[in-house]
User: What shape does this take?
Amino acid sequence: MLEFNLDGKLNNNFDAGNAYQRVAGSEATSYGLGQSNDPLTPGAINPLSEDTLISPWDEAGQTNGAERIQRHSALPQGHNAQPTQRGVNPGSNNDALTGTAEPMHDLGQRLSVQTPIDQLTGGHPDGRAISSAQHAAPTDPLNLDQTNSIGLNTAPQQLDPLTGDSEDAIGFIPMPGILDIDPEFLSHLGERAEVNNLLAEERFDRDQSAGTETLYNFTWGSGFSAHEGSGYDITDSKNNAADIGTVAYRDDKEVIGTIGYGSGRNRDSNDYFSFYAGKAGNYDLSLSNLGANVGLALYNESGSLVSWSNNSGTQDENISTFLNEGHYTSRIYSYNTSFWNNNGATAFNFNISRQADCFEQIVEAWIDDSSVKNAALNSIKYDGDFGRNDIIGILKSAGDYGSVTNTELTDLRQFHNIFSGTMRSDLAVLSEKVLFHDDSNAWYTGSDSIVTDLGDLEAGSSTQDLNLLIGKHMLGLDRPVAAGEYTQAGGSLFVDGVSADDIDQGGVGSCYFLSALAGTANDKAEMIQDMFTDNGDGTYSVRFYTNGKVDYVTVDSMMATSATDRYLYANSGGDNGVQNVVADNNELWVALAEKAYAQVNESGRISQNGRNSYAGISGGNSATAITHITGLSATSEAVNLTGINGVSNAELINYVNSDRVVTVRGFNGLATGSGSGPTNISSGVQGHAYSIVGYDAETGRFDIRNPWDNQHLSLTHLQLRQLGADIRYSLS
Assistant: This one.
């Protein structure tokens, strides 16, 4: 197709590949703009003049003629289309090279062998160490090999600047090779590459610039027909309207074109342009630069007239109205009544824009840095919600030039202070940790179990440190120090609901936490389900209650494994204490909860010892753990006969039957059996924490579940008292 300019001269730079095409397979009424519901079709009453319209058209004879609209630039169309996006600083592109795992001290529980746990230390009675054998490191996206110096050293071959000899030539002294680099440093490069590679994904890009997209719709030069009688060009009928894409705040659409030219008895009397209103709001449509009298009308998706503008002469036409999200069609139409001349022909500038809503006005007023502002505005371009990918995109936008400036840091904190109340609870808490002080910011572990210094975000912090803080809190990449390597776990968050039987303790002395977890699963299952937010990308936000407020950490489904590819730590139960193969189809919530508890321990808010390490949560108080899991107050009392300064039989029955979370601890090694004589209880249960999950009124015995997933107990109140047990329970 040839395109002419307004002077009738051929445009040589027209690219038909950029021209609009009718949507493949679309029907004549694809936007609901059929002739029957068009108030401006022949025979209908013009809402402007109440006269029968003069523009002839023949819907039955319409064909898809050559189109005449061209985009100024190939920008995306449609509400769901992804715009061309600007990437971020990818940072280091080295492989994730794991170092040797640190030894795991006093970790407390058996792996796959059913061995009692020491009541004092939580370790194996025979002092057997847990294997720390390493697996081969999984291949990461960069495909580098720590042991292959050639693969790591990708620099070009060095040449002697004087002789031109290679480094193998006599007398040439090469620069230090890759093997001179500290292996620990290489490991740090790897965990940084892991963060950078993930943040470079397109789903987190938000800081693209916005602006007006200009399109052109010229008829052939003056004196030439638009051929509207026998074959309609694109824009010449509603059913063949040109789709100019999605309109959003700062994403305006402009069409520069002409209308009213004719030849013979045919005249270009209608130009239709369809668009998508990306978000509900006030939209402005304007028609300017007019040399003749034309009108402007707007229809909704069903074809009903929404509004119109009919100023006399060459005055601008304007429509300003509230539109819901959806498809709309605009019509520019000519009042020229002569078929024999072009006295009514005119050029026009047609503009569509959406006004800023309250959130967008706040961002414009309070955010100064252009990248942060673009990221925030693009995040709510099509909705009013700052989602997880939006928050991550806004945070990472501050690292676009290698470091975080004072303006960028101020803007990010201002953004959080203003909008955190509108965010999902976990996103507000986790982004606060990135932007403000948190004790856990002092270190970063990654997956190599090597702890390195990090620090709070400050003005001047590098892009890499910003990315690590995002990776730590938002992406779950800062994993606890473990005795083995991390492997991708297979399975689902929940399988057939939540049950105390889902719990199987692993190689750390966390019985106090797992017994509280099992008690909660038994009596308040909905709290366990609400504890997890599935982010849809293999990560989970896990909720705790620390220091009287809601706290969250993010975990991924990478789990610490033994040399036999089985869970080192807690995993799903129901199989008599056998540690599951990590890659199998497992129920993940127990393993994720324990991993998250190890991570939140680094914040210093759960009264435990250590950094981001499984060893740090070895040993603790189940009453405190009940509060951390449920947010409910909990207490501890000894078992006695009267209930004074202790828990009587009647009180314990009431606690168990009233769905309180109840745990028991403190056995001294002997219990009265079902007969008259004493029965020895395995020494392995001394100091161990259990969950009381039921009461049998016929036998007078309490069902007591061992977090080992075996060696469960059934004891009377008298036996519990003889064992010196104490009861730890929630107050509601």
